[in-house]
Structures are given as C-alpha cells and as structure tokens.
Specification:
CATH class of the largest domain: Alpha Beta
Shape: globular
Strand order of the largest sheet: 2-1-3-4-5
Radius of gyration: 21 Å
Largest sheet: 5 strands, parallel
CATH topology of the largest domain: Rossmann fold
Helix content: 55-70%
Strand content: 5-15%
Structural class: alpha/beta
Order of helices and strands: HHHHHHHHHEHEHEHEHEHH
Number of helices: 15
C-alpha cells in the first residue's frame, strides 16, 4: 500500500469525520513517521486529542484498530523506514545548511511523488485550454510562489492574472469568473479566510478550481476539481514552499508542452519585445 492510498481513504471519508478525527487525520498526512514509529498516545498528543479519537479514526478508515493503520503507514513508507527512524530518534544536527538540504530534497520528493498522473493530466488540460482564463489566488505567504507561477504561465499562454489587493479589488477581479475560468488556489494551513471565500465564490459562479495545498482535508481541496498535496515541512520554524514551487514549475512545464506551437510563438514575441526594448543585460 502507498501513502497516497491512506490519503485516499481519508479523503473519501472526509465529510464523515468528526473534528477530532480530522485532527488525527492531519497528523497522519503531515507526519506519517510519527504514526509508523509512534504510539497511540504520541499521535493523540500530536493531534491535541485523545487516544480514543486515534483509534476511532483508524476504525473509520477501515483498519483493525491503530495497529492496522500503523502497519499500513509503515508499509507505505517502505524503503524510507531507516531514514525515518533516524530522523525521529536522532539528535537535531547543528549544521543549518545540511538540515535545510535534507528537508527541502525531502519536500520536493514527497510532493512530486504524490502527484497522481491523472490529476496532473487534468490540471494541465485545464491550464492549456486557451478558451479559459486562469486566475491565481494565493495566501500572503504564498504570494511569491503565486507570482512566479502566474508570470511563467503567462509566458506560454495569454489570459493569466493573479488576484491581489483589498477586499474591493479582489471582488472586482473575481467578478468575471464563470465556466470559462480556472482558479488556481495556493495556500497552506492556517488557511486565509479571504482565499477560501474567494475560491468558493468563483466555484459557485461556475469556475473550475485547482488547489495546491498541504492536505486533502484542506477547505481549498474540498472545493477543487483537482487538488495537489504538497509537503511543506521546514528545517526551521517556518513552512517550506520549495515543494509547492516545484509542483507549480511542473504544471507550467506540462502546459508549455501541451501548447508547444502557440507557446513557442508567444515566447518568441516576448523575446523580441525584450530585445527591442534592450530590457535585459546578458553580461
């Protein structure tokens, strides 16, 4: 069993989970090693709930108690068992650069390895549809990734914008959303209410949402036609956005490949404009 299969069980039962069971599910998805090598009490403590809630979640997911859930997660981790044990039981290294290297490589690997080919294909199909406008909505911490994604995507197709500004400005920019709009939402917990609300309004108006978030239980994933779960474990006190950046880069690459001829023409036109304006210094 792969970890994605455990995540699929959680997602399939999302609406039936109680608030405390959702807290436990978040721990399972965010820190599977703590489930694979921990105890009921440890998982309960990480989820700020009781051991009974941990066991109830395991049963609701179709496992024979916590031991069944633990065995499934251990099996999913597979060849990562040894490094996971070392991370949990070992001392924190003092070399910040080394810790960051290991954390970010792990984030990129986890993020891209979890991408289902059919979901990626569906997202690229939506982004490559030039009859649809693409609107990028990103939380405050994700604004930079959103801007890089929107800028790169706009180089290979027209009709790409990023929503920003006051409530009035956001409402104005989303006013035209409808069936011919794709909304790409980027946010990590704790999710910003305006992002969740904006995506919800756009979907209610007929838009199709693609969510890039950190859990299948995210309120953004709940409204999305396609959702991707990124790994965002930081080496320090802040979330990492490297996995999110890697995924959005992959989406742009996939879209450019789908729009090969028109994307090439658009890039040629942009390059010509840059040269005419002498906008860039090569050396």
């Amino acid at each position: 069993m792969s970890l994605s299969e455990v995540a699929e069980r959680i997602e399939a039962r999302r609406d039936a989970l109680s608030p405390t069971e959702r807290q436990v599910a978040e721990v399972v998805l965010r820190d599977p090693e703590s489930v694979a090598f921990g105890t009921v009490a440890r998982v309960a403590d990480a989820a700020s709930t009781s051991g009974a809630s941990v066991v109830r979640l395991a049963t609701r997911l179709g496992y024979p108690g916590f031991s069944g859930l633990q065995a499934a997660v251990q099996s999913a981790i597979g060849q990562q068992l040894r490094p996971a044990v070392e991370r949990i039981r070992g001392e924190t290294g003092s070399d910040v650069v080394d810790r960051t290297l290991r954390a970010e490589v792990d984030n990129v690997h986890r993020t891209l390895a979890a991408v289902a080919p059919e979901d990626f294909g569906r997202a690229v199909e939506l982004l490559a549809d030039r009859h649809r406008a693409v609107v990028v909505v990103a939380g405050d911490a994700e604004t930079g990734v959103g801007a890089m994604f929107a800028t790169a995507l706009a180089l290979v197709r027209e009709g790409v914008t990023q929503v920003s500004g006051s409530d009035v400005a956001v409402a104005r920019q989303l006013a035209g959303c409808g069936p011919d709009t794709v909304v790409v939402a980027l946010d990590l917990r704790r999710y910003e209410r305006w992002v969740v609300d904006a995506v919800g309004r756009a979907v209610d108006a007929g838009a199709t949402a693609v969510a890039v978030t950190d859990s299948p239980l995210s309120p953004l994933a709940a409204r999305a036609a396609v959702s991707f779960v990124v790994s965002a474990e930081g080496a320090g006190v802040f979330d990492s956005h490297v996995g999110m950046l890697a995924l959005t880069n992959a989406l742009v690459t996939g879209t450019a490949a789908r729009l090969r001829r028109s994307a090439a023409r658009r890039l040629d036109a942009v390059e010509s404009a840059w040269r005419a304006a002498e906008a860039l210094v090569d050396r």
